[in-house]
Amino acid sequence: AYGERLSSSKGLRFGVTRFAQPNGTSSSSTGPGASAIASLKDLLTMMIQSGIVRSSHPAIAPMYFENLVRFGGYFEAEREAVAPVLMSFLGATGIHHPYNSVRPRIWYFLHRFVKQLPNSALAVYSSDFVSAVVGLLKISVDPAAIATPADAGSGYGLFDSQLFLFEACGMMLAPANLDDSTRMALLQHLFDPLFSGAQNLMNSKSADQLLQDPRALLQIHHYLTAIGSIVKGFPDVRVEKTASASTPDHLTASTVQVFLKAADMCVAILEALRNSQVVREAARFTLSRMLSVLGAEALPYLPRLIDSLVSSCAVEELLDLLGLLGLAVFKFKPYVAPTASELLLPVISKVYGFLDQVAQNGAAGTDEAVLLQDLRKAYLTWIAAIFNSDLDSVFLAPQNAQHIVTIFQPIATQLAADQSSPQSQRLAFGVISKAVQAWLVDPMGWHTLATLTPSALAALSSSSAASGDASRLRLRQGAAQALGINPSSDSVREARDQFKQFVMSTVLPVCFEAPTQPGFDLADAQASLVVAEIASLLQMTLLSGSADVASGDGNAAAAMPVLQVLSPPIGGDLNHNQCASYLSTALLPGLGCPASMAAEFVQALASLDQKQFKKYFVSFLTSNSR
């Protein structure tokens, strides 16, 4: 209790803190705080040296190990205490405690203890650790988990606690200073029972028979999830955006091969048993961990994973899948572009299939309505992640380009007009604005599509990158090259022309219809964010209609400062601006706006900055809704 009060009042640092003195010397920290920490340090030392952990009383060991984990900073100053504490964890009153109710709790504390230790300090204990733990890793299915699905909140019984041990084993094998032959022997010791167990089950029955056997499916789920937990113990790959898709340098080649073998087995099982929800859950978890640890080495498995998951997944699984895809495109740009291009249409088709089904039949209840609202937001967030990762070229790949209008039609006419979710509205207009910037303002990829903070925008605008220097390949251009796309080709130009016509005929009217619908409160905070996105989209569209952008070869943006592309006012000759002419002579008069007010609106759109134009736009909407 003393340590808990101390830790809640200030951060604990058990090392000696020294302060510089005016004469250049240093002195040790003193005062009540330092003496309290020193006292706590002495208490922990006494606790460890007392041997009290050897007591088999069920209340002693959990309290002992919880104290060690709570005050993990102690081991930064007292490295020599790691060995005896680790041995007590692995002893008869630690993870092998005689009380069944106590053991899982200690497994959790062991996982936390190992996670707190520096990576370099683990290698010397790896062999002893795995040898002591491996006997607890035998996987069996809890009968209660068969009767009650885990998604009902019951979990998988003891197996949930075993996963802490599997991950701790992975952490113990991850240090770079561990001998590779030792690591491989220990990995095989861990993986072989999991591989053979899963393969034996797959060979014992046909896929149809396995799908009728809940126990076998749960056993396979446990094997795959255990593999993913071991991999989770290894650090994530650090991806350099300019690097090639090579073997992760933080793993040895032999370790990579073991993990790839596990990924092969995981995908093969998923393809055979894709109709099982628990198998899909396990495969998604394991392969997402492979992706994080192996990086680009695991990207070839992503299409097979998505194909199997999309064909049978429920809405909840699709939400998780969209999050995984968003992370993949952000983390592994630009060389994830071919994979993202291949997956684009199947995933979008699945999303629209769910949304169309509900549009026809209605939501079954409140829970389903909320779930579908989450699906809309997850879908738009994924599309936005593609643009923010400068991978807009995936939409222009030959198999996708002809479907651009089909993809964006529901975004503009349904999601952008959906007043029940202002968040979805804002995301929808934001996605369309990114598309306009990518394909109508800067089709050659001279500027990033990422959302920039004001400071980052200022830094970029003052750098040489903003000058349109053609000698340096941009990320967007690199992604297009990875897909074999020529932005000047006839097919790409045709796709951009179709999208431009779609923006004029469909998107621009929605920009005025959505905020003037009954029930859209312009004074509401969330509605204000929607209006800001619409204002930004209108200014971006006006920029796309300027003469040099609309009639040029697509390189006009190369000479534009980044502030002109991303932060109007636009200026220029409005008499030769296609968008300005359409707004002032066709669209706004068609919506009942007087010619003089329409001309004034277009002038404000071109001359005001984003903040000023948003205020004007709100005033314009208010005056025309009366």
Helix and strand topology:
Blueprint: H1 2-9, E1 18-20, E2 26-28, H2 32-50, H3 60-70, H4 74-77, H5 82-89, H6 103-116, H7 126-133, H8 143-147, H9 158-173, H10 180-204, H11 207-211, H12 214-232, H13 253-272, H14 277-294, H15 302-312, H16 315-331, H17 337-361, H18 366-388, H19 398-401, H20 404-415, H21 422-441, H22 454-462, H23 475-482, H24 490-513, H25 525-544, H26 547-550, H27 562-566, H28 578-590, H29 595-607, H30 610-624
Antiparallel strand pairs: 1-2
Helix pairs in contact: 3-6, 6-9, 7-9, 9-12, 10-12, 10-13, 12-14, 13-14, 14-15, 14-16, 15-17, 16-17, 16-18, 17-18, 18-21, 20-21, 20-24, 21-24, 21-25, 25-30, 28-29, 29-30
Tell me what the structure shows.
It is a single chain. The chain has a two-stranded antiparallel ribbon with strand order 1-2. 39% of the residues are buried. It has 30 helices and 2 strands. A hairpin with a 5-residue loop joins strand 1 and strand 2. With 626 residues, it is mainly alpha-helical. Helix 6 runs parallel beside helix 9, helix 14 runs antiparallel to helix 15 and helix 15 packs parallel to helix 17.
What order do the strands of the largest sheet run in, or round the barrel if closed? 1-2
How would you characterize the largest beta sheet? Answer: 2 strands, antiparallel
- Unreliable residue runs: 16-32, 242-246, 464-471
Our estimate of the beta-strand percent is: under 5%
Radius of gyration: 30 Å
Instruction: Please tally the β strands and state the result.
Output: 2
With helices defined by DSSP (H or I, 4 residues minimum), what is the helix count?
Answer: 30
Structural class determined from secondary elements: mainly alpha
**Overall 3D geometry?**
elongated
Assign a percent range to the helix content.
Answer: 55-70%
Amino-to-carboxy terminus distance: 66 Å
Average pLDDT number: 85
